[in-house]
Design goal:
This protein is of the alpha/beta class and 405 residues long. The protein has helices at residues 13-27, 43-54, 60-84, 116-123, 149-161, 193-201, 209-218, 261-270, 346-355, 379-390, and strands at 2-5, 34-37, 89-92, 99-102, 109-113, 127-131, 134-136, 142-144, 165-169, 190-192, 222-226, 234-237, 247-259, 274-280, 308-314, 327-338, 362-365, 369-374. The chain folds into 2 domains: 2-170, Acetylglutamate kinase-like (Carbamate kinase, 3-Layer(aba) Sandwich), CATH 3.40.1160.10; 247-402, VC0802-like, CATH 3.30.2130. The model is unreliable at 280-305 and 394-405 (pLDDT under 50).
């Protein structure tokens, strides 16, 4: 079993001690464990601020070297706490755990994992406590995987070892909406990989979308659970019914970029300040499935060019000022209904938003979701209105048998 603990679960010495006690109790059942840890809560942001105090544009290699120390500290402290409980443990940096990466600093991908060291530690009776979020590239440099990369680390290790993966955080699982904003949000006990991936892509925060995509690709069962509670949480796997409505997700800050296809594609694919693209088109937006209001027609493209547009999500701390070579508009919020029936619910979505006095600036529909683009000030109200209209008052139903993939 691989167990991953997030930064909020490791935010203080007291919490680290409680996590160690949980790991010790699990190990006492006779289960070999590999633990993956994030940096202590708030530590990565603090390190970014330190770098920013010295440089407006820190060298990516050095920034990765700095940020990787956050996980190094948390794994060492957690290993100490386990030893204090009589549980033999060893902290391992990403490279010590055999994690090799490829791709740019700050956005690297796991290329391979040599499990020899992990197996050796397990056979010696120790609990390997592995740094998430990091690995070593072909040049021998430390690289990081981007925000949420510790989830991906845990899934990749689980796949390499052929075991399930549990992701622990400060919430008891995946909910039908963010329970901090929607009082009636409900725990979703099980989801299919593609449902969870669509939900994460649209803004649900419990599981990292890259980790979910990796779990689907490699067939790793995922279990999202609360660190300090015994709730069953949410299981993400293959053999469960498809949900008609998974839930409603929100992103409170996105930006529309417009320009040549090369400029838009470059920013969406490799720009260090862009976390992900919400939607990207390879044709003028006016010719796509976007439905704009009467006053929102896109400007005409320059002579001899074709205007391309995308809606992007920026990394924490990044600003739209760094998006060069394109026209930037925003910020906007997005609210998405996710599930097998979501594409057929546009009328109900429009009615719920209209009833709440909320204007939908744009919308798009794909196979598993219906998304509205609106003012950030309306995001939470829209989230609540759509959840109340489409989820509350009944259980999150499942699609008919014939609708399963």
């Amino acid at each position: 079993m691989v167990q991953k603990f997030g930064g909020s679960s490791l935010a203080s010495p007291e919490k680290i001690a409680r996590v160690a006690a949980r790991i010790a109790a699990e190990r006492a059942k006779g289960r070999p464990l590999v633990v993956v840890a994030s940096a202590m809560g708030g530590r990565t942001d603090a390190l970014v601020q330190l770098a920013s105090a010295l440089s407006d544009t820190p060298p990516p290699r050095e920034l990765d070297a700095l940020l990787a120390t956050g996980e190094s500290a948390s794994t060492a402290l957690l290993a100490m706490a386990l030893e204090e409980l009589g549980v033999p443990a060893v902290s391992l940096r990403g490279w010590q755990a055999g994690i090799r990466t490829e791709g740019p600093h700050g956005h690297a991908r796991i290329a391979s994992i040599d499990t020899a060291r992990l197996h050796a530690e397990l056979e010696a009776g120790r609990v390997p406590v592995v740094c998430g979020f990091q690995g070593l590239d072909a040049d021998g440099d430390v690289t990081t995987l981007g925000r949420g990369g510790s989830d991906t680390t845990a899934v990749a290790i689980a796949a390499a070892l052929g075991v399930p993966c549990e992701i622990y955080s400060d919430v008891p699982g995946v909910f039908s909406a963010d329970p901090r904003h929607v009082q009636g949000a409900r725990l979703v006990p099980c989801l299919r990989y593609d449902e969870m991936l669509a939900y994460a892509e649209r803004g649900a925060k419990v599981l990292n979308e890259d980790a979910v995509a990796t779990a689907r690709e490699l067939g790793v069962p995922l279990h999202a659970r609360a660190t300090f509670a015994d709730a069953e949480g949410t299981l993400v796997t293959t053999d469960v019914p498809r949900a008609s409505i998974v839930g409603v997700a929100m992103r409170r800050e996105t930006y529309r970029i417009a320009g040549s296809s090369d400029a838009v594609d470059a920013i969406c694919r490799v720009h260090h300040g862009v976390q992900r693209r919400e939607v990207a088109q390879r044709a003028p937006l006016a010719e796509t499935q976007f439905d704009r209001g009467p006053h929102d027609a896109p400007p005409a493209p320059s002579r001899g060019t074709t205007r391309h547009e995308a809606l992007v999500v920026l990394c924490e701390g990044a600003t739209p000022d760094g998006l060069e070579g394109v026209v930037v508009d925003g910020p906007f919020a997005t609210v998405s209904v996710v599930g097998a029936r979501a594409p057929q619910l546009q009328s109900a979505i429009d009615a719920a938003l209209e009833g709440a006095g909320i204007a939908c600036r744009e919308r798009w529909i794909d196979a598993t979701s219906a998304t509205c683009v609106l003012s950030p000030r309306d995001a939470i109200a829209a989230l609540c209105a759509l959840h109340q209209a489409l989820v509350e008052g009944r259980a999150v139903a499942h699609a008919p048998e014939g609708a399963r993939a």
